[in-house]
Amino acid sequence: MDKGTLKQILLITDGCSNHGEDPIAMSSLAKEYGITVNVIGILDENSTNEGGLKEIEGIAQSGGGISQIVYAKQLSQTVQMVTRKAMTQTIQGFVNKELKQILGSGNSIESLHPSKREEVYEVVEEIGETVQLEVIVLVDTSASMRDKLNTVKESLFDLQISLNARSGENAFSLFVFPGKKSDVEKLLDWTPKLEKLNTIFPKLTMGGMTPTGPALREAIHYFNDKMNIRGNSNGDDEFTEQWAD
Amino acid sequence: MVMTNLQNNGQINLTPGSKIVGKWNRIPYQIKYMLGSGANGTVYLASAQNGNVAIKISKESTNITNEVNVLKKLSQVQGSILGPSFIDVDDFTHPYTREPLYFYVMDYIEGKNVFTFLQKNELEWSCVLIAQLLSKLEILHEQGYIFGDLKTDNLIVTTGPHSIQWIDVGGVTPIGRAVKEFTEFFDRGYWELGTRKAEPTYDLFACAMIFIHLHCKKQYTKNGKGINQLEEIINQNKSLTLYKTVLLKALTGKYTSAAQMKKDLLMCEQERVRKQSVHYPQTSQNNKIKPAQHSQSASRIANKKNKKKHYWFETIILVLLALLGYSLYFYYQL
């Protein structure tokens, strides 16, 4: 099997979008391109935000990803867990599709006898360990996120430690929304390491609207641009497209 | 997939007395009570045809498949117990919620949580237990795996001959791969003291942290100073300072095998025992206290400080008693 690439958007936010396109529509679009959208909602210790929670779940569901609501202090473990789970889920989705082709529709890993699942599981694990992973991180920098930014930074470092322990390659890119002059601003171009965050994060200005939809749109564009460049140079995107549902 | 629960991801509630019959193998089990619950599932004590078993139930089949894979591999290692033995794996539907659930059945190992055990037993046990743990790890590492999510919560002390046993094998990872499951306090990545690649040194770091946890009874959060913070913690705890060299070596990844660490740990322990026995007559001379009280004072280094205060207290009482005696004597003389 050709070594493929898994593409994920990791959206870190604490509330409702209030500007630009419908984020759920953008997330559905991402899914069509074979990009998984995961959402982590950061909760304040003493607030419940029904509308925000609903949107967070909606974005992840339509983006074929995972959503998780956490308190700021649990963020690190959650970020790496969500990314990993989403990765496994995507690979499993792919394996399930193959199984359906072999065994007929209605079949999935769960319809195998438990003792037969072991081998399938090992294949999923193997791919998860070696597959190339591209993650665009979208960080909400509206005013209410101000005191959570340091935790976000730490959790991204932590994510990098976890993912770089795999033998597959990783590439991260970081966008914040709203940006200084536009809805979305790119802070980090594709890089395997996130050390630069230390110099970038303290300079961030927080405040303004929450343009979650435009941020997702921008991330999709960025992925597609990268794919086009890569496609022109060595054309190894066959597998990548297979991940699209 | 939505994971909205904040605390109990995937906790499964089954009332005592519930019957489970596997969909594939049709073996019946009766739930007795819950033994524990974690991110990957809930463990119940249940009765099977041949006695008590432990059943781990999860909403996700991958969790179950992973652990069954590990248990089967570990049971191939002969002549050593590297975990509970595997009995059965199957699916069933929750009687009330109708959701599909996945489970596996293993031996029920009776034991106490390490903390509960150490509350009732002397702290010296901590060294014995860690040495036992290191022996197990040595065998596991030789098989090409690391334990991964090694932490105090995952360890029990069996009844009968006390020995340490790990109970959750979900984090076992082939050497060279990425560690999938970890707990911050016991994870070297969290402390910025190494990668999350599965290497024997990853487990040995966790072992040192377990030792610290057992002695300090507290899980610290990092302050960014890395190894210096951990060294400070060791320095602040008298019962840990004796093991400082071993702990620091393990925390900085200097041991290449569990056997090496075990050897050094046992040397420290020997040194501690030797120091104590030499210490005896000296203290008894200095403080002029009957030897009978000494066998107690020798038992715990951790309580040394308290014991010293105790001596002071006794001295003051003695002086007061003497004064009282004197005053009574004078009173009656007059």
Can you walk through the features of this model?
The complex is a heterodimer of chains A (245) and B (334). Chain A has 245 residues and is an alpha/beta fold. In chain A, 48% of the residues lie in helices and 19% in strands. Chain A is globular, with a radius of gyration of 18 Å. Chain B contains 10 helices and 12 strands. In chain B, a hairpin with a 5-residue loop joins β10 and β11. The N and C termini of chain B lie far apart (93 Å). The N terminus of chain B is likely disordered. The chains are: A alpha/beta (245), B alpha+beta (334). β3 of chain A pairs parallel with β1 of chain B.
Q: Give the SSE order of chain B as H and E letters.
A: EEEEEHEEEHHEEEEHHHHHHH
Strand residue content of chain B: 15-25%
| N- to C-terminal distance of chain B | 93 Å
The overall pLDDT of chain A, averaged over residues, is 85
Q: Based on the structure, what is the oligomeric state of the protein chains?
A: heterodimer
Strand order across the largest sheet of chain B: 2-3-4-5-7-6
Spatial separation of the terminal alpha carbons of chain A: 18 Å
**Would you report the number of β strands of chain B?**
12
